[in-house]
Amino acid sequence: MSASNINKTLPPRYGPNFKQEAAYEHVKELLNEILPQTDKSQIETEQNWRFPLEKIREEKKRKPKSTKKKLLTRNEKKKLGLLKLPKGGWDYSKILPMNKIWKEYMYENLELVKRAPHHTESDYNSFCAVLNKSELIGAEISIIRSKVPSYVAESKFKIITKDACVFIIQLRNMKFTVYGKSLLTRPSDRSIKKIKSYVFPDL
Amino acid sequence: MVKLRKCVGKENLQRLNYLYQIGNIYAKSNCKQNNLLSSYYTNLMISISKKTVQRLEPNIKRNICKVCKNICVPGKNCKIRIKKQKIQYKCNICSSSKNYIAQQTYLWFDQTQSVNEILDYSQNKS
Ligand SMILES: [Zn+2]
User: Is A144 on the interface with B (CB under 8 A)?
Assistant: First the structure.
């Protein structure tokens, strides 16, 4: 073994899983050849051998950063206008076909047998719960009573406050009266919320 | 007329169904306002299904674009290609894409053992 061999790859007996004692001996052999005569005496006396690169080898590799694509954040959605519908510029005749589907859906949903149950019957409470949980997009609704008198019996496209109104929902030959107070929740929350069977009739 | 046993949360399922139907009408048109309507309805549908803990059917869920929440109607709204045994849906509006494995019985939903009970309400119509 000579100094010119240092840069070459190690022989197979010094492969990746050879023991630490063998490593010490290998280095001692190497030093015996390279060092001048005057320094050779220090090889044995130097007890604490240091291998500065040893620690780096044992360290675990860092996990690569996750490359998952992020979806739109809430601020980006707000900029694109996905959260709220525009207030103006609707064509009523284009939205009208929705009403045809709504009638079919509602009739099937309420499981009506030609008429709605009277408030003295036993079905009444469960019927009200189903009506509360049903969807009102596409329904034909008119206002019969309101704190703002100009709202009543108006045919205009307008955004109103639901709190101070009483609505009538029309379905075939039936009419349902709904207080605006019960519609004040978020549309998705209405599916889980339980309603009171009796609401104090206050405008 | 036979009165069937009531299915749990039937009114919620029917609400989801209705929202999907009206969302489908407006997804087909190229008008930007109508696309907003469609994405608004699907957003409502997703939030209702989360809150009532009733999961959407996998085929319906796959039809919804994950970024702009539009319903994908192939040929009008989105592109569908098969690449390396995977189906790729590409949305035309926001140009995002998603891949699924093209195998017939890959999902548990598609296998015949997964069906437990069928309630048929179609005879109840009057
Ligand atoms: Zn999209």
Answer: no
**Which chain A residues have a beta carbon less than 8 Å from that of B68?**
72, 82
Q: Do B48 and A191 lie within an 8 Å CB cutoff?
A: yes
pLDDT in tens, A131-168: 888 888 888 888 888 888 887 877 777 788 888 888 88
- Which residue, B62, B53, B56, B51, is CA-closest to B19? B56
ipTM over 0.85: no
Asked if A133 and B15 come within 8 Å (Cβ–Cβ), the reply is yes
What element of type H or E holds A164?
none
Same domain, A106 and A181: yes
How many domains would you assign to chain A? 2
Q: For residue A49, name the pLDDT band (cuts at 50, 70, 90).
A: low
A28 and A104 both lie in a single domain: no
Task: Show the domain range for A178.
Answer: 91-191
